[in-house]
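Cross-check.
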Amino acid sequence: MKKVVIHTDGGCHGNPGPGGWAAVLTFGKHEKALSGGVPATTNNRMELQAAIEALRVLKEPCEVDFHTDSQYVRNGIMTWIAGWKRNGWRTSTKKPVKNADQWRLLDELVSKHTVRWHWVKGHAGHDGNERCDQLATEAIEVIKQRFSSKQLRAALEEFNASVEAAENVLPGLA
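Predicted model, tokenized:
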């Protein structure tokens, strides 16, 4: 199995607000950097998107050392997801799991690989994390330049409405 090292980061300006994600994959001497953004999202969604996009580019099963500064992503995939799946994508308090669409996709992608999850402290000088933070921030700036403030406000209103709708899903329909 190929051994790949992945670093990821995600963030947004405002939470929710314009967001960006980034991933850097290293295989031997080869490196691939990925990034992207959306006009309205949350920090957690961008952290998850970074993980999804990083794993999505792997063309075959790999042994992955995955580095993230997100305890949400690391704890979610290593600990919480088993209970969420067992409970029909509901939390222990019977509420719909936030970002379930992304958790499902991440779970599917992780199942194809052997992944060791590593938490790194953000903004602490860790080269891979710092690079991803820079790329994610640049992606946010691109979004803020591409969309007018009116378009960003409209996207945020639409995002907030979709979150509210998802939180009010009836049991069994999620």
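The radius of gyration is 16 Å. Strands lie at 2-12, 17-27, 30-41, 62-68, 114-119. Passed to J.P. for a second look.
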